[in-house]
Specification:
CATH superfamily of the largest domain: NAD(P)-binding Rossmann-like Domain
Radius of gyration: 21 Å
CATH class of the largest domain: Alpha Beta
Shape: globular
Strand content: 5-15%
Order of helices and strands: HEHEHEHHEHEHEHEHEHEHEH
Number of domains: 2
Strand order of the largest sheet: 6-5-4-7-8-9-10
Structural class: alpha/beta
Helix content: 25-40%
Distance between the termini: 26 Å
Number of strands: 10
CATH architecture of the largest domain: 3-Layer(aba) Sandwich
Length: 307
């Protein structure tokens, strides 16, 4: 069964009219947000009572209000694809990190203009060897990136809500949030977006960073205050940035577009055939398990009590 609605208002009416009655589990794509909007306290109560499971095709699930889904009667249990994206997203972060460190973006721009390295030549870049990679959010993607950075001779420090056991940390050093900001040569953001993490990096945080620091974001755009980032770059409080995500994507802050110290990608962290296939198969496994066993393979952490 496929909803016929083209917008949120029509989707709600479709539910209210009973056209989705009998649905037990749904495969949710990220792009469906443009039709349904967020699964929130307005939407959840109008869903048919038969609908018990929502299988989300993504690791991040900020488009879904987990509290509203849990409070619904009966609860709407939500799954994601927590580790299917780890390699591809970490690879993207490494690309952004190396490109920004080496100052490749200005050189690519001058080359396309027919000016070789520019006149005067673009500034020297920096080697990753011996640099400190700071990871904010040492989940699967962060740990994957830490392993890859080690191959480049980098030391990893990290900050999480809680310290990892030694095996999971893989040699990375646990530090306070402020120490992470002060010590990192590269700061990689790998944490989910929620009320507590929105704009977790803003004006005061940029002031604590090294002037040579590179900020990389492959998480969600709104974990960084984009206006504050533009200001920090313009004031040379940090050296550069590599971004795959943006606060109001596909809209991008004009200050980022015009600054050649920033490498930009149009949210391509998981944009590979192999990773998309892994994600889709994981979603299907969640739906199959929900229907045949009455439980999801990977229920989101917010709902572990409902597993």
């Amino acid at each position: 069964m496929t909803p016929q609605a083209k917008n949120r208002e029509d989707f709600i009416k479709e539910c209210q009219d009973g056209k989705l009655d009998g649905v037990v589990a749904a495969y949710r794509t990220v792009h469906s947000l443009s039709i349904t909007g967020r699964f929130d306290k307005e939407l959840c109560p109008v869903l048919p009572k038969s609908w018990l499971y929502l299988s989300h095709n993504g690791a991040g699930y900020d488009q879904i209000d987990a509290e509203a889904c849990s409070a619904r009667d009966p609860p709407l249990r939500v799954s994601n694809v927590p580790t299917a994206v780890d390699d591809a997203t970490a690879d993207t972060a490494m690309f952004l990190m190396l490109g920004a460190l080496r100052n490749f973006n200005p050189a690519m721009t001058t080359l396309r203009k027919g000016e070789w390295r520019g006149k005067p030549a673009v500034a020297f870049g920096h080697d990753p060897q011996g640099k400190v990679l700071g990871i904010l959010g040492m989940g699967g993607i962060g740990r994957n990136m830490s392993k890859k950075a080690a191959a480049f001779g980098m030391k990893t420090i990290y900050h999480n809500r809680s310290k990892l056991d030694d095996e999971k940390a893989g040699g990375a050093e646990y530090v306070t949030f402020d120490d992470l900001l002060k010590r990192s040569d590269v700061l990689s953001l790998n944490l989910p977006l929620n009320a507590k993490t929105r704009h977790i990096i803003s004006t005061e945080q940029f002031k604590l960073m090294k002037k040579s620091c590179i900020v990389v974001n492959t998480a969600r755009g709104a974990v960084i205050d984009e206006a504050a980032l533009v200001d920090a770059l313009d004031k040379e409080e940090i050296a550069g940035a590599g971004l795959d995500v943006f606060e109001e994507e596909p809209k991008i802050h004009p200050g980022l577009l015009k600054n050649d110290k920033v490498i930009l990608l149009p949210h391509m962290g998981t944009y590979t055939l192999e990773t998309e296939r892994k994600m889709e198969l994981w979603v299907i496994d969640n739906i199959r398990s929900a229907i045949t066993k009455g439980k999801l393979v990977s229920i989101i952490p917010d709902q572990e009590n409902l597993a």
